[in-house]
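Lab meeting notes turned into a lecture example. A postdoc, R.K., suggested we walk through two folding results consecutively so the class can see how the record format repeats. The first protein's sequence and C-alpha cells come next.
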Amino acid sequence: MTRPKASGSIEIGNSRNSPARLQTAAAAIIDAVVRAEPPNPGEDKVTAMKWRTVFLGVLLPIAVAQLSDAMTRIAGDMGGPLGEYLLMFAAIRDAGEQVMIDGSCFSACTLVTALVPRDRICITERAMLGFHAGWFENQAGERTTSAAGTRALYQMYPPIIRDWIGRHGGLGKRTIVLEGRELAAIYRYCK
C-alpha cells in the first residue's frame, strides 16, 4: 500500500509484520496452495481440492489476524496538506492498524484523532497533539485563516477532543497543545 508522503516521521508497520509483507506472504501461500499438485500421483483431484481448502481455512485467518498487528509510529510530524493526511489515516484505519503517538503530531497530523478509532491509538510520555485553525495561502502567498475550513476541521474531531479544544480557547491562529496528563486522560499509554 502506498501512503502519501508527510512531513515529520511516520513509520508505517512494525519490525515484525508490516501489512505489505504479510499481504505478499499470504498471497504467495494462497498461490502455492491453489497451484499445488496432488501429493500422491494416485490421489484424485477432489481429495486434493479438499486438502487445499482445509489448508487455506487454517492459514488465511492467521494471515489476516497478523495484518491488524501492524503499528504506525508518529513522531516529529508538523502536518501538511489535509487531503494527504485524510487519505493516509483512512488507509491506516481501514487496515486495522494501531497508531503510536511518540512525539509531536501537529496540524493536519491531528486528524489521526478524527479517523482512527480511539482504542487503536496509544501514546508515549513524549506525545503532543497541536491544534490550530484551518488556513489557506492567498494569492500573495500569505496564510489566511478559513472560518469554513476551521468549522469543518473542528467537526471532524471526536467530541472529547472538541471539548478539550473548546476549554482551551478554540481553534485559532495560535497552536494549542494537548499533552501530558490531559492527553493521557483521553488515550492510553502504549505497552
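The second example is placed directly after the first for contrast:
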Amino acid sequence: MSSEEKEDKHKRTRKILKIIGFSILIGGIILLISGIPTKIRGDSMFGDFDAPWFETVSTGMGMIGGGIAMIMFSSFLLFVTYQGRIAGYMIDEMSTKFDTQHEDDYERYEKIIEESAKKRATRGNRVEGIEPSADMNRVQNVKIKCVLCGALNDEDAQFCDQCSEPL
C-alpha cells in the first residue's frame, strides 16, 4: 500500500469518525434534554400510589445518564479525529507568541544600543567634569536573557548556555 493510499484511507476514516462523533453527540444531547422532563414528571408523581413513579424516575435518570455517556464518548471520538489540527493550532499559537516576544526584545535592545551610541557621539565619550579613563573606553558586552530559564547569554549566542533553548 503506497503512502497516498494510506493517506486516503486515513482521511476516509477520519471523515467517518467525524460523522459518527457528531451523530452520537446530537443523540446524546437529545437524550439528555428529553430525560430531564421525564425525571421531573416522575418526581411530581411521588406520593401518588397509583402512578408509575419509580419507572418514570428511573427512566428519566437512565435517559440523563445515557445522554451524558453518549456526549462523553462522542467528545472522545471528535478529539481523536481533530487531534492533529488541535496540536497544529497549539504549536502555531506558541510559536507566534514566542516570535513576537523575541521581536519585541530585539527592538528594545536595538533602541537601547542606538540611544547609547547617540549619547556617546554627542558627548564625545565624556561626562562633564570627569576625565576619560581606561574603564570608559572599554567595550561593553551586551547580554541576552533566555526566555525559558532567565540566564544571561552573549549577544551573538544562538542557544542558551544553561538550558540550550534557541535564543
